[in-house]
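Continuing the batch. This is chain 6 of the set; chains 1 through 5 are on the previous pages. Same settings as before, nothing changed between runs. Recording input and output for traceability.
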Amino acid sequence: MSSPLPMADALIRAAKWSGGSELPDLARLHQELMRLPTQSSVVSEKQATASPAAQTLEATYTRPYMAHASIGPSCAVAEFKAGSLTVWTHSQGVFPLKRNIAKP
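Output for chain 6:
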């Protein structure tokens, strides 16, 4: 049976799916996150003079990773009508999304 929306039929025929990259091992998540590229910037810098009795201690502390993500299912709906595309989405990055949708 044909869909009431001809565009939906075209999308069904053209859709290609493939698996994404594998998720990292949660036991090594801290190390995996530390390997990712970063951007650093210095906001303020203060030069302190160390006294002869000064001692430097160094340590690394971690805590379980908590994602900044929605807790419910996500979806988006798009409608192409009269030469115009309207997209409804829950995205927190609407401007990057708009740039990506507009790419040829």
